[in-house]
Structures are given as structure tokens and as C-alpha cells.
Amino acid sequence: MTTALAPAGPGLLASARIVAAADGRGGTALPVLDGAGPFALRRLRPVGREARVCLVGAMSAPLGGDALALSAEVGDGAALHFRTTAATIALPGRTGAPATYDVRIRVGDGAVLHWLPEPLISARGGELRMTTTVELAPTARLVFREEQILGRAGEPPGRLTARLTARHGGRPLYDQELSYGPGAPGWDGGAVLGGHRAAGQLLVVDPAFAARPPAPRVLGPTAVVAPLAGPAAVVSAVAPDGLQLRTLLENGLSGVDFGIQPDKDNPVQQ
Hints:
This is Urease accessory protein UreD. Required for maturation of urease via the functional incorporation of the urease nickel metallocenter. Pfam families: UreD (PF01774). The chain is mainly β and 270 residues long. Helices cover 5% and strands 51% of the residues. The longest helix is centred in the C-terminal third of the chain and has 13 residues, at 242-254. It is globular and about 50 Å long.
């Protein structure tokens, strides 16, 4: 089914959907790969049982007033790797209205998801409210990366509010909301960014953590590995720029026996 594209007030309404399912032969099929507007989804060559999908930005989005939605479902026993070709830039629109971006992810039993998009950049004058909801079955595994860059080179950021909520086996696992930019109290103070302009986290969920959780570890003055109250851990970091942020996140993940690792074919961007 083709996703409808229609105006959302002064902006654009667009959505995309990915469904990955075990194909019964040891691999993963993609029975649904559907998007419109700024969402151009492309199949990549699979690696082992893992299907791979890349999101290509077909137009500038999100602009102020846009309402975007992306959903992904990884069925029982399937494996999916998701990436994007470039950073997403939140730009101002013609009316000054905020944009919204809603991401919903479900991962079934015995399924594995690597969700590794490029950063979200909050450009001057833009306002974006982004929500990400992840529902995990009890034996699902996940590597989820989220990176935010506040302003392009030499410019102040727009307003960005980002919330990540994860549930495991129907129970709360992780729920964090951060707000940056004009009107957000204390966002640039020592308790939040401390003058840095890049922030991010890597959420890793693995059933093996129930018996052997990762130990907490400090990765220098601006990054940490922290186990969660569930079979999960998070690597959190702030940095002066996106390159240093990516390095901190990947160092945190590679330095712990997480059982599943980040994509070695997608190293830190130069």
C-alpha cells in the first residue's frame, strides 16, 4: 500500500513503514517497505540472516509545521539493520510552527535490530518535537543509537525536544526526555551540556544481561556506561562535535561484552 501524502496544517504529513519477517530459510524478508515524501527506503544487500534497509532523504525535512512518522516491526526470529545515508536537519518553516517526528519500533521474540541512523541536527530557527517508542519482546535484542547535534557550524541551535521510551516484555525499561535550545531551561548549563554541542546515547538490550549485567564505567569526563534495571545498558555522552560524540559512543560499546556489536561496515564518519 502506498503511504498517503497530504498537508498537515501549514506543513507536510508523511509516513513510512518497515516490516521485517523471518523467511523460514534462515534469512529475513522485507514484506513491507513503504514510504513517501522525504522517506525513500532502499533495500541493501543482506548480511547473513540480517536484512538491511537504508533511508535516503528525498527532500528537505522536517521543516516547521511538518508531521513525520516512521514505524518498524521486526517479527519473531527476524534480524534487521537500519541506517540513513546522511544527517537529518530540522529546519524552520514558513510559519514558525514546530515540526513533529514520531518513530515507533517493535522487536519480536528472538529478533535482533540494529537501529543506527546518522545524527539529527537542530538548525537555527527550527523547532522539532521528536518521540521514539520501542517495544521489545522478552528475548529481543537491540542496538539503538541516537545522536543530536545542536546547530550547524558556527550557528546557535534551534529548539529540540527528544523523548526516547523503551519497554521490555511489557514493562518500562528506559524513558528519557531532553530539551535543548531557546526556551529550554538550563540546557547549556553544567548539569546538561556544559557548553558542548553534541549529545547522544547507545541503548543496548540483550537477554544475556539478566545473568551478567555490564558493570558501570566512566569513559572520561563526558561519557559513561550504565546498566539499567532490566537486561540492558546505555552509553551516554556529550561532546564538542559529532565526530567526537560518535567516537565516545562506539568506544563505550566496544569496551564492554555486550554480545552484539555496532556495525563494523559503518565506522565513525570522517
